[in-house]
Design a protein that fits this description.
The chain contains ten helices and nine strands. It is of the alpha/beta class. A hairpin with a 5-residue loop joins strand 4 and strand 5. The chain is globular, with a radius of gyration of 18 Å. It binds adenosine-5-diphosphoribose. The site of adenosine-5-diphosphoribose has 23 residues, from helix 1.
Length: 229
């Protein structure tokens, strides 16, 4: 069985990484247009760099939770038949042992050089304006897909959605496109669809099945079911 899993901030919430739109979420304390757009970066790069430096430090202290662990177990069993598409910019899937992970919204651990286009491991806090290890220019920005920018690897994601048997969305509010539209694409191509979330989301009615509960409980239970345990 081929499975595509889409994850959002909710899967990392119990690891202590704040979500965006829940009470106490990141967009409650920060205006999107001040920190998460190309215009914000052009206007005030230092503020934007500091915002992502702080998030990188916080995310590096977080540990994967049983939901990340369960998806890694699922990959052990399914291999190439599982693709995780994450909107998350943390590394918790990889740290739990998953390797087939698409970071469609970029990664905190990566920097993008605006001079040469290289994507490189963040060499030091970006607010300090470190040199690009490839070209030497001081032109690194967070390798994060901001509002108004094109998410990564959409062709690969579309191919996977078109050929999967099951699409599962975990811990995402369905507020941000194109990810919020993946359930429609999967359905059009004949896949079954399942949503796992703490509460109903904006797109719950589009799924064949919705299971409500914390990711650390509902994800391992679902994985056990798939693996017949
Ligand atoms: N277990 C499962 N789901 C949870 C949990 C939990 N413990 N805690 C919260 N959730 C759910 C919420 O119910 C909500 O539906 O996670 C979802 C989080 O939604 P958002 O904060 O909107 O996060 P996300 O969907 O990942 O946001 C998408 O928006 O700003 C951008 O680029 C950012 O990738 C992000 C995108």
């Amino acid at each position: 069985m081929r499975i595509v899993v889409l994850t959002g901030a909710g899967i990392s919430a119990e690891s202590g990484v704040p979500t965006f739109r829940d009470a106490g979420g990141l967009w409650e304390g920060h205006r999107v247009e001040d920190v998460a757009t190309p215009e914000a970066f052009a206007r005030d790069p230092r503020t934007v760099q500091r915002f992502y430096d702080a998030r990188r430090h916080a995310a590096s202290l977080a540990e994967p939770n049983p939901a990340h662990d369960a998806l890694a177990r699922l990959e052990d069993a399914l291999g190439d038949d599982l693709l995780i598409v994450t909107q998350n910019v943390d590394e918790l899937h990889e740290r739990a042992g998953s390797s087939r992970v698409v970071h469609m919204h970029g990664r905190l651990a990566s920097a993008l050089c605006q001079a040469c286009g290289a994507r490189v491991p963040v060499p030091a806090d970006l607010a300090g304006d470190p040199a690009c290890p490839v070209c030497g220019e001081r032109a690194l920005r967070p390798d994060i897909v901001w509002f108004g920018e094109m998410p990564y690897e959409l062709d690969r994601i579309d191919l996977a959605l078109a050929s999967c048997d099951l699409f599962v969305a975990i811990g995402t509010s369905g507020a941000v496109y194109p990810a919020a539209g993946f359930v429609r694409t999967a359905t059009e191509f004949g896949a079954s669809t399942l949503e796992l979330n703490l509460a109903g989301s904006e797109v719950s009615p589009l799924f064949d099945e919705v299971r409500v509960g914390p990711a650390s409980v509902v994800v391992p239970a679902w994985v056990d079911e798939v693996l017949g345990r």
